[in-house]
Structure formats: structure tokens, C-alpha cells
Automatic annotation (TrEMBL), chains A, B:
Keywords: DNA-binding, Transcription, Transcription regulation
SMART domains assigned: FCD (SM00895), HTH_GNTR (SM00345)
Name this polypeptide is given: DNA-binding FadR family transcriptional regulator
InterPro entries according to UniProt: GntR_C, TF_FadR/GntR_C, Tscrpt_reg_HTH_GntR, WH-like_DNA-bd_sf, WH_DNA-bd_sf
Organism per entry: Bradyrhizobium sacchari
Domain HTH gntR-type: 18-88
Length: 270, 270
DNA sequence: AAATCCGGTTTATAATGATAAATAGAATAG
DNA sequence: CTATTCTATTTATCATTATAAACCGGATTT
């Protein structure tokens, strides 16, 4: 089976001519959709793909690179090596989204405007689906968040641990879209929040205490499987947090996120 | 100025070794952040980049390809050619997001769960910022949406025109994050919705009429700069639409979106 | 004088071949 | 039986050459 690619620079139907490598990328994508390849399935190896599309090594290499950057495949060397379909990792998606938002000026309040709306619904929707492990993880998380020292770097780490609480809730929600939206918000807050060092540490500590308090209540209501109470508590939590954030002068540190920065976030158990 | 890249396979600090090309990609990203390059600025040409990072042609090519796929640069030939920084297009971001959602099973209702929450707030927030052109565009859009025929392909196109209404509202909102979230939702609905052909056309027409009616009211309230009324109307609109969608058996057509499909959406005037 | 053509220059794009590095699995030593 | 070394296979990287696209400026035409 050989797929024929248009070789001549397309008669210009007002469509911009595409590069060879990009055409091959699309062909491969169609192959994936067509043959309904699932994560774990393998693409033919480079040499075969070269033959299949009648292109050179460097072209097929670029095409594979494109798919790799998009997070659709991983490439490995050695026997049995080659391109393997994979489910696009959440982290990769975040990174690509950060590229988009790099040039926009997103403020903390902008994000909270969406967070206020989504989180209560997310939390309420998660309640019926929380496993015992997840409930335990919520309670466990509250312990780690107890405000201890006022050492600056520790304060930031604590704020980030706060966000783990919300990630655990998100993980339990059956709505993949809502889940994604909230995980995105958490990730942005986690990664980009740089609180002004001007802010007095007491303010931070107070923020931490308030969080622990309401998280405790939410965890309790979740154990009682009281969705409506969780929703109400989360709503209050979000409004309170909005206020704190305004005062804390949180701002987003807009820069390009590197792959090497993307690794080590402990995934909450699903 | 020459940047030295670690050449030896990194002493394995539990970090997975990265490919040369990916290291170069990161170096270039740092270059962009560091030198604060803005859209329109140019990267050095390939030969220079080769020298700068002491890598071969194909390696630098792969690195540039990576940045191109991420939407951060465009590459052109000719004397003034080379890599030019660009603002990541919204469409590219959508596409990369679709890759992520390709493997998840997102239902229509999943999306509407988020839409119900976000759209009323978005619309209300846009009201004070709507320009005369945008108000006119809203009213204009309602005209094009008047249900005419019941021809199947036309019905789908009409549903998509409905979404333009919401895109116009989104474009006026000053919150870039909320705007992005709603534009994403619109795009997903626009591109991926495939209504069951089982559904009787009358039902579609009724849906279209209901939309026109409430869009008309929303446009009127927007002209009157009545944010609260717009919020309330949009809330009702979303709830009504949710119900219709359930009955219409709308589902998402999960597949990989190709570059070639990404082009021709008329951007609403900002 | 303005527009068009045309060839040269610059740059990316594509192809090919050669060598290095990584890996899985078999063979082997302890 | 375990751990190590070996080997075959495949990608990763480099180097070189050829091709194609885009731009520039001068000559030619209108």
C-alpha cells in the first residue's frame, strides 16, 4: 500500500501550499484515525514510512517530530523501537496552552473569574464518585497544609499543596471537559503564581489557615456525600480566596515553559 | 557568543536524557524569553543557529520544526527568510487541545455543563465593552440565522452561525482567560457537533427559532447596556439549549483535526 | 514614468549516506 | 538462578549535495 502525495505545488486554490513534511504529518494522522489506533499501538518504522509515502528520511523525521511535539507519539530507539501512539499527556497540553497565553496578559483575577464559576460545580459533581482513597487523600492533604513556618519558599510550596486538594477533587469528576478546565486552572495557579515578596508573611499565614479551615469542612461534607453542601462550601471558599488573592497582589509570571520544567508533579490517584 | 550544550549523555540525575534537538529547542525558547523577542522579530538564520549551538543542519531543523508546530514561529524562504516569532494563533491552540481530548470521551452534555456556567458571566462582562460594530454584527448575525430551509447540510451550517453570535460576545470580553475558555467551547461545538440524522428536521427548526428569539432579546439588552439582563437572558438561553441538545442527540465527532481543516473561520471583528 | 519580466542571490526544503547512540533480547559467566 | 556481556536492530546525529522558493534589482516593455 502506497499513498500518493501531491508532488506539484498544488494548483493554488487560494490554499497556502504546505510543506512535504506537514503533508506527511496529516497523512499519518489520518492513518491513526482511520485504523483507529489506540495508545500503545505502534506506527511502522521510519524506513517503512519512507517507502509508504515515498519521501526521504529527513522528511519523515520531521513529520514524526511534529507528532511527537504534539504529544501524540513517543519515539524510542532499539529493536522494537519506533513511534508509539500515546495519549496526549495533560502536561504537554498545558505547556502548549502556556505558549498561547505567553503573549496575552492574564491576571490572577481573570483566572479566578472562571474558577469561581467552575469549582463549585466540579466539587459537587465529584462527591458521588470519590473513592475511599481519594477521601483519605483529601484529609491527608489538609495535614500537609497546616501552616508551619513563614519561610518564603515554604509558603509558596504550601500554596501549591493547597492546589493539590482541588486536583484530587477534579480527578474524581466524571466530566472530562470540566475536569480539564479545572486542572488547567490549578496548573496555571500552581506554576505561574508569584506572590509579591512585599506582602507581609502574616497575610500568607492567614490565607493558609483560612484554606485549611474550609478544606476541612469540604472534606467532611464530601465524606457525608453531601453534594449540595460541598457546592456551597466551595462557593464560599472561592469567594474568600478571590479576596485574599487580590490583597496578596498575586500576579502571573508570563514566560515560556520549558519541557524540562514539566516533569515532577505527583499525579493524584485516580 | 556560543552556547555550550552538554554533549555527554548527562550523568543521569534520574532525569531522562533529552534529545539534542529538544535541548536546542529549549535554548531557543530561553533566547526568546531572555531577549524579550516580540512577534515579528526574527531568529538568526539556520546557518548561524548551527554555529551558535554547534549542531548540524538537521538538528537545528528539528528544533525549529518543534517551535513551528508549537505555533511560536513561522519559517519562510528567500533572502529575508528564516524564523519569525509569532503570536500563537488561537486555531493552533485549539488543534493541540483537540489532540488531548481525542482520547477522552467528551459528550455534548459535558461541554454544556461548563458552558452553562461560563457563558452568562462572559456575556455580562462583555456588555460594557461592545463596540457599535460589534452590536451591529450581533444584529446582523441574527438575520443570517433566520431558519430558512430544512436541508440537512444547511441546518448544520445554521447551528454554526448561531455560534458566531457567541463568538462576537466573547471577542468583546476583557478577560483573556474567560474569553479563551468560551471560544474553545464554541470551537468544539462548531467543529465537532454532528447531530443525529434520526432527529426530525422540525425539531432542528424549532431549535433555530428559539435561538433567534433569545438572541434577539440578548442583542437588545446589550444595546441598552443592561449587563444584568444579558446575564439572565444568557442563563435562560443556556438552559434551554441544554435541553434541546439532549433531545437532538448531539454528539461529538472525536477525531484528529488536521491543519488543513483549520483555516477558514471568519474571525469576528475585535 | 510605471509596470512587467528576468536572472542572480539568498534562504529554506529535500534527499542520501555514513557514523554514533540506545535498547531489547540472546548468550554467557559466576 | 542472577548478573553481565554481547549483538542485532533501530533511532539520533552529522555531513554533504541538490532542489525549490522568495526576494532584489536591473533591463525591458508599455
Amino acid at each position: 500500500m502506497t499513498v500518493e502525495l501531491e508532488k506539484s505545488p498544488r494548483p493554488v486554490g487560494r490554499l497556502k501550499i504546505q510543506k512535504r513534511a506537514d503533508l506527511v504529518t496529516e497523512e499519518i494522522k489520518q492513518l491513526i484515525t482511520q485504523k483507529n489506533l489506540r495508545p500503545g499501538d505502534k506506527l511502522p518504522m521510519e524506513k517503512e514510512l519512507q517507502r509508504l509515502f515515498s519521501v526521504s528520511k529527513s522528511t519523515i523525521r520531521e513529520a514524526l517530530k511534529s507528532l511527537e511535539v504534539q504529544g501524540l507519539i513517543t519515539i524510542s530507539t532499539g529493536p522494537t523501537g519506533g513511534a508509539t501512539i500515546m495519549e496526549v499527556p495533560l502536561e504537554r497540553t498545558f505547556q502548549l496552552l502556556q505558549n498561547y497565553l505567553f503573549f496575552k496578559e492574564v491576571s490572577m483575577e481573570d483566572i479566578y473569574a472562571a474558577r469561581r464559576l467552575l469549582e463549585p460545580e466540579l466539587a459537587a459533581g465529584s462527591v458521588p464518585f470519590l473513592s475511599d482513597e481519594q477521601l483519605a487523600a483529601l484529609e491527608q492533604n489538609i495535614q500537609t497544609c497546616q501552616p508551619a513556618s513563614q519561610e518564603p519558599s515554604l509558603l509558596v510550596r504550601q500554596r501549591q499543596a493547597d492546589l493539590d486538594f482541588h486536583d484530587i477533587l477534579a480527578a474524581a469528576n466524571p466530566n472530562p471537559f470540566l475536569r480539564f478546565a479545572c486542572e488547567l486552572i490549578n496548573e496555571m495557579l500552581r506554576r505561574l503564581v508569584v506572590f509579591s515578596t512585599q506582602t507581609p508573611p502574616e497575610e500568607h499565614t492567614r490565607f493558609g489557615c483560612a484554606n485549611v479551615k474550609i478544606h476541612t469542612e469540604i472534606a467532611k461534607a464530601a465524606r457525608a456525600r453531601d453534594s449540595e453542601r460541598v457546592r456551597a462550601l466551595m462557593k464560599a471558599h472561592m469567594e474568600e480566596a478571590s479576596e485574599y488573592v487580590k490583597r496578596l497582589d498575586g500576579r502571573l509570571d508570563g514566560r515560556l515553559i520549558l519541557d524540562s520544567e514539566m516533569a515532577p508533579r505527583p499525579r493524584p490517584l485516580s
